[in-house]
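Minutes, project huddle
Topic: does the predicted pose make sense with D-xylitol-5-phosphate bound?
PN asked that the exact inputs be recorded in the minutes so nobody has to dig through chat later. Recorded below.
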Amino acid sequence: SQPVRIAPSILSADFARLGEEVRAIDSAGADWIHVDVMDGHFVPNITIGPAVVKALRPHTAKPFDVHLMISPVDPYLEAFAEAGADIITVHPEAGPHLHRTIQRIKALGRKAGVSLNPATPAKMLDYVLEEVDLVLVMSVNPGFGGQSFIDSQLRKIEAIRKQIDRIGKPIHLEVDGGIDRDTAPRAIAAGADVLVAGTASFRGGPDAYAANIEALRGG
Ligand code: DX5
Ligand code: ZN
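Predicted holo structure (tokens), as shared on screen:
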């Protein structure tokens, strides 16, 4: 199996010093930078848009893992691709044509991800799994950092891991929400290979970031 990657969510960073925060979490060992984009419509919170992604792009060479919690989503794909997103992940409920949305992301030269809310079944992937580069299982209801991990999502991760292994393509299986040093090993055991962590990455300030990330790897 693939090595576990850690994708700190900058939602938990200090927004007044976001460039420095991205540099600090990069040098602390982050594999990817997870960017949570919320529109106050698809989810009950508003965060950042393509202008901020673009402003952060020169601060790190690590992949930008952009999680779009916005609806509609299609009109914004190009802006996020041009701003420097490497992976663009969408929710199936964000538009009526998920397959087309995935094709558009790939046509923009970016990796495409699909994210499933806690109540959304793995079955939603049946006709698109072979098309995607990443599946993101939400282990909290999207909208806010600092929520508790929902245990039922482990079964979903296990089921999707089996499907990915059956297909035999290097599709990432990412988990997002309530990941800390206790839930990380459970998500990994269920089959996740990318862990998003906001609170657990950024707690304690820059001096703690390297140890925070190491703890999530099981160190
Ligand atoms: C939730 C976001 C997550 C969130 C994770 O809507 O998609 O990425 O920031 O935060 P923690 O790790 O604090 O649960
Ligand atoms: Zn996220």
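Observations noted during the meeting:
- The pocket of zinc ion (ligand 2) is lined by residues 9, 34, 36, 67, 176, 196 (CB under 6 Å).
- The chain is about 30% helix and 20% strand.
No decisions taken; revisit at the next huddle.
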